[in-house]
Amino acid sequence: MAMRxxxxxxxxxxxxxALALGFFILPRWFKNKSYQLTREPTSQTxxxxxxxxxxxxxxxxPPQGKSPTxxxxxxxxxxxxxxxxxxxxxxSSKPWHPVFDSRSGxxxxxxxxxxxxxxxxxxxxxxxxxxxxxxxxxxxxxxxxSEGLRFDRIVExxxxxxxxxxxxxxxxxxxxxxxxVFENGALVRIQSDLVTDAVGRPTGTVIPVEQALSxxxxxxxxxxxxxxEIKPELVYLPHDQQLIVAYAIYADRxxxxxxxxxxxxxxxxxxxxxxxxTSRMLFN
Amino acid sequence: xxxxxxxCRRVPLVNRRLRRLTGGLLSALIxxxxxxxxxxxxxxxxxxxxxxxxxxxxxxxxxFIELNxxxxxxxxxxxxxxxxxxxxxxxxxxxLLATASGLSxxxxxxxRDGAFPGSIAKxxxxxxxxxxxxxxxxxxxxxxxxKFLSELAQQGTGPTTAPLVRIDTHCKGADANNNAYFEPSTxxxxxxxxxxxxxxxxxxxDADVSVHEFGHTINHSLSSTDILDSxxxxxxxxxxxxxxxxxxxxxxxxxxSWYGQAMMQAMGKPTTEFxxxxxxxxxxxxxxxxxxxxxxxxxxxxxxxxELHKNHNAPASNLRKxxxxxxxxxxxxxxxxxxxRYMIQESTAAGIDSNLVQAAFTARGLxxxxxxxxxxxxxxxxxxxxxxxxxxxxxxxxxxxxxxKLDVGETAxxxxxxxxxxxxxxxxxxxxxxxAPLSPGVSIQPGSDEATYLRFNASRRFVESLVxxxxxxxxxxxxxxxxxxxVSATTAGxxxxxxxxxxxxxxxxxxxxxxxxxxxxVGSVAPLKALCPGNGEESVWP
Lengths: 284, 542
Hints:
The structure holds 2 protein chains of 2 kinds. Chain A has helices at 2-32, 49-53, 75-91, 117-120, 126-142, 209-218; strands at 97-100, 107-111, 149-156, 160-168, 171-183, 186-192, 224-226, 233-239, 242-255, 260-269, 275-280. Chain A is of the alpha+beta class. Chain B has helices at residues 3-22, 25-43, 69-73, 134-154, 207-222, 225-228, 232-250, 257-266, 294-297, 299-310, 316-329, 336-347, 354-363, 473-482, and strands spanning 57-64, 89-97, 103-104, 108-110, 165-168, 180-183, 188-191, 193-196, 199-202, 254-255, 278-279, 375-376, 383-386, 406-407, 411-416, 419-420, 429-435, 442-444, 450-453, 484-489, 493-502, 513-523.
């Protein structure tokens, strides 16, 4: 009984402390907050669906216009690619094995091969060598002119990986990269997650980022606080060989079911605002 | 850490319990308090630069704990309230940048502390602290991660240059309760705490947690955050390889046995026979072991590394090389099938017998090439419409009328409940939905045309192959959601879609695909409901 009374006392104490804490914090919270708290759900709900699996449910009206959901490479592009591939094979000391994307048919990876370009051009840095290679081969192999590829970074480990990001009309295509992997003075692997230059562009007026944020707030969708250190970025997203123009917004999102904060990256359609994807940015 | 997976699946229980006890008020206030604290913590953080720190280095004497208090004390039941200072080890703390404010070796910096901001260890002082001194956790974390980085450097694996990572060893940041995490947008690591019977147990006393979280930074450098976020399999691999980094550095196959135990107890979970958050000594059987959860599912890959190390004496240095090469090979959208192929392909270059790698994956059912011939759309109830999806409390819209049909004005989750007529299971199947032909009456939401079927059990439909909702509602719905597409309807009628399936194939690069037609009927407009009957959205889920 004494233990029970003690527990009860502790519980009451915790309750009072939490109450005081809440009242102290609430005014500060609302003072600077631009997004309203929403009522906690009264039902059991699955949590983290959107962020755990990298796919968000949609919001708002469907996007304008329709796009085909499959756009296999044209026969002309295929012919150009085959020609470029044959040329690369002829230059290489070890044959390349091509791997194609099962859906679009685009060339995705060249592996197992060996091209001695670094050894032949030892005076040049790897980035220069990579850029030179892309100038010759990128358009033919991947349907992307090298002008649309900007050097991003080089990852040095036992191999050197030179990574380029794709830009379309001067705008970054999120997740669209091309990497050249060098080992012992040779190019040994090529990895492409690019979209072809022939990709369809969205049309319409881009809304200001404030409007995108207001839309999230107005729909009461997420209690989010954009992170001040990371500015929202207007990007293209590849989708079925079409591009979607979107804002990438980093924010802290309050998850009341799991009683925690999720740092997320929210991709919001910048033409017809709705959330395309929410990715969790905390890796546990 | 795997902490997260537990949070995903268990914390709602805690939340419900709290609500039951307090009528919701206490939990709401705690939530607000936590968020407020976290938010202010973030606002003062400085984003580390892209280049590592450089400068003259020094060494000093310091205390660290070997792996964790269980291991160091030799007592696997050591109470969390124990002062484990007697079990600390004194050692040289190396590579300390003399000019750093705090502890730094140029790749990591510990110069802030969420819970003890006025207590920051410096390279210029004696680093021998008692276990109760906050500076001990800073030194301990530094020691273990510096050791890990030195091992990588000596063996020429891992990135030789990488962004500076800031570590808070007493973190109060987002998701720090019963957890620890790496945050790539600011290159920070948060080592949080769990409270057991009033005792605060810090993750920074468990070397597995520290190395696991820092392992994420290696993964994201060798691959990229975008790539590792691009598929469920790659997010899972990220967790698995972080466990591998921790295992190869600390040689504990029961990952995070100390902090994991604390978390379990803090959340009121049974702790008997606890074998770490992940047990690398097991041999999981694909696809039966899949939950669709990053941490749980990662053992399909991480246990292979353990087996190669323990049973086949593959040197840790070679296994690190293998992990490093596989990370470098990853591309957006890769699945376990590609990962398995990369591991076999890269093993020879890493100095490991590829036959052993292949055999290890074969034993787990991951070296396979599935057929899709036995998958069909059932004539009845082959299409499940969830027209009141409620994914995140107060977060996502409910756009349905709960009648289990797609009606005009609704955006609903559509699950094609394929049936497997084979007497064997089928592994993970990727699916894409497209309209055939395009119609203005319906649209698949952008970004929602791809789905993943976790598995098909023998002679079962997809939903019947999952963990039953009666056993674990959250997991069941997560897996159902994974297999769904979001479709909006504007005009009534019957529409034909093409469902393109790609089978699990880790044996070669030839895609195994199949396209099946699917008919979806759109009903007339009906008023939307905020919530379905049955105390929420329960009734519309299969």
